[in-house]
Amino acid sequence: MSAPAPSAAPARRVALSDHAVALLLRGGFGAYVTVLVALPLLTLVYRGLADGPAAAWAAITAPAAVAALKLSIGTGLVAALVNGLAGTAIAWVLVRWDLPGRRLLSALVDLPLAIPTLVAGILLLALFGPQTPIGGALAEHDLAVAYARPGIVLALLFVTLPFVVRAVEPVLHELDPAEEEAATTLGAGRWLTFRHVLLPPLLPAVAAGTVQVFARSVAEFGSLAAVSGNIPFQTLTAPVYILGEVEGGSPGSAAAVSLVLLAVALALQPLSHALARAAGSRRG
Amino acid sequence: MASAPGRSRPVGAAWLVVAAVALYVGGLLVVPLLALTRAVLADLPGVASALTAADALRALALSVGLAAISLVLNGVAGVTGALVLTRQRFLGRRLLDALVDLPLAVSPVMTGLAFLLLFGRNGLLGPVLQSLGVKIAFALPGLVIATVFVTLPFMLRELALVLEELGTSEEDAASTLGASAWQTFWLVTLPNLREGLTLGATLTVARALGEFGAVLVLGGAITGRTDTATTFIHNAMEERHTTSAYGMALVLAAAAAALLLLLQRRSQMPGVK
Amino acid sequence: MGIRVQNLVKNFGPNRVVDDVSFEVRPGELVALLGPSGGGKSTVLRIIAGLEQADGGEVWLDGRRVDAVHARERQVGFVFQHYALFRHMTVAGNVAFGLRVQGATAQDQTARVKHLLGLMGLAGLEDRLPAQLSGGQRQRVALARALAPAPKLLLLDEPFGAVDAKVREELRRWLRKLHDEVHTTSIFVTHDQEEAFAVSDRVMVIRQGRLEQAGAPMEILDHPATEFVARFVGEVNVFDATMHAGTARVAGVTFPPCEGAEGVDGTPVRVIVRAYDLKFWKDDAGVARVDRVLPIGDRVRVEATLDDGAPLFAQFPRRSSLLTGIHAGTRIAVEVTHARAWPIEGASHAGAPIATTSEVRSAAPR
User: Fold this and answer.
1) Is the pLDDT of residue B261 over 90?
2) Residue A19 Cα, gap to closest chain C Cα (Å)
3) Which of A115, A240, C174, C360 is placed for a possible disulfide with B256 were both Cys, Cβ 3.0 to 4.6 Å?
4) According to the CATH classification, is domain A62-283 in 1.10.3720.10?
5) Which CATH superfamily is B29-163+198-266 part of?
């Protein structure tokens, strides 16, 4: 029982229409991304510089702006450091050790990816806000988390928790136990094995995740809008500063300061990609 | 791919690490969640009435609607883009690839600002839009555009990952068996993308529901018109209506938890991110 | 379907992967493309299928030039090395696919699937998913799937590479049996010489993108065209020697007139002797000493060293009378019954001729 013969479509026509479809998809997608992403960002850059470089510079070097940028970068570095270490430890626990509650831990680590950042800020307020027991207790000792710098750091830690974990986990999974066993049979102790067998593949992954944490922290808005109090020179980060400029009717200044953040983001992207590639290339 | 290392029980000092990790994650994530739940439970009737008020429901509906539209648009764009970026080679591919990732790097406030500068009354296209009678900023279309922007990469990245891992051999096989390009896509490629589509959809919806900065700047958070669930919370906090704010926050947190369960499938597959 | 491939060229970046390959396959033939990994054989196959575009040359199927024809129009069945089964479809779905996309009725599809699965010994597995099958089963499903639309040409890319040895042998016999029944023109790619010889009517040896030799298995074995073919196919002894009076002499072992090196006396040559073209027997005044006697299945491999240090080995059937009295340490005489020689090309091959000048007792034929 044979199948009906396929229709003898002229060969050239088939090849051409395939190619045409591919071009159509490519063009359509390219247009979509250009209009959606490139166009607005180019407008932002244009507006930031439209008032002239002098005005842009003045906007960027305004004392409140500088303070905001410094705060964003400073808190970003702290978050990167803490979650760099914590994230690696969490990944280690999740992959290497046999513990009950692993799945719960894994789910919790993914939580910040699903939760709106504003809600993250609200969560911290519900715990540390001035009306809460903890908030009140802290206030008695002249300490504060909500509407203060510690609150900023906590919010950033919350929001960026998954990044290093997810960067490190696959690398840990792909480690070949045979390599560690080989090191052991050759006489290496735990520390040496760690340093020479485990660390080399881990380092690029941890670095990649840490860079992502920093980049994300500098750009963070929602949680900080809720929990930082937005006090200029104290707890006002760059994105919130930009918002203030927009609401205050200075879009040019807002665009200029945005350029700084955009430059930081664009500089970090290739770094993050390169590190991720280095982490990936060591695997299999 | 090497097999996962044999898991061992932690020994000695390792337990300290476990304890530290548990304390860290618990203190950072769980305790605040409990605090919010407690605050809401302390005034359940108040929260209930606040959430069933018209503007709260409208805000929630708007958020869900925006998520749905983003899912559809970026779902199609994601499938198309993933195929184009992984299966085609052309001049400008790297640039296109980088553009797709930009929404992840750009701060939400800047996103809103950028669109405002483009579509606002005093924006680049402002006069054109006005003459056409089209309102984007401070209106629904603006919210849609902002949400679609921020959710662009998620579906695409998941699908691109899957396509890379799958390779083209099944599609080649379909070709030799006489399938047309469309038949190959519909019968072979798409079914293989099922898991990627689920993950991508989950991440897209989560991000859309959580969008705040861009919709705030571009939409203006006008109650009843451009007020999403997140800007509702923001407005409530500004007006010191903590009951409404906490209530809506818990609703969104619960939605996030539900989406989280869908995300967990990924954790079962080591190496597939 | 007859196949003709002419002057095929394919480059991947700076590498010329297929270098001016031409050959013909007659309708109904089962032909092997044999060669070391990375030699370009799979690429040639994919070009014939239409999965790759050649950079130069022509492909003719059934007298029709198909260079511009898309893979789906060529009516070629392709079996991939790693099966490429549609992972989300059942076995039945996989096998029926070619019929389905061409619009066959559900009844026709079911009937044909049943027929093919029966032919392949896979009856009853219709509703299984590929992940639930063994390697051998998957490969047979891949074969059934390729055959379902009754292609005029069957191409197999290292079809048995991904299964273990026992299964491989079974599948080989399957393929030959199948071919004898169905008579579809077939080309299959392999790096396993045994496989190529066991299954095909003709073998084409491809190396570094070039066709070294095409011919029936016996011909390739007995009359290799190049040194590479001789060494790639079957186990060989290799000697560097110098031509002398029309033959070569190595450490007192005189070779019969060597095919291929009817050249000037004094030319350095490389002599190839198959393991079964050597005779050993116990001789205290012999020219070599046995190192090892290894029984391998139904054969015995005897490894020895010539007095000048050159190693050599021979194979005998298990119960050969020649093996009497031979064990490690025994001195043996050596006779070569058939050899082939090639001039050594290039300085890099210039090993010092091993032929000694001292007169050593040469082997007397028995």
Assistant:
1) no
2) 11
3) A115
4) yes
5) MetI-like (1.10.3720.10)
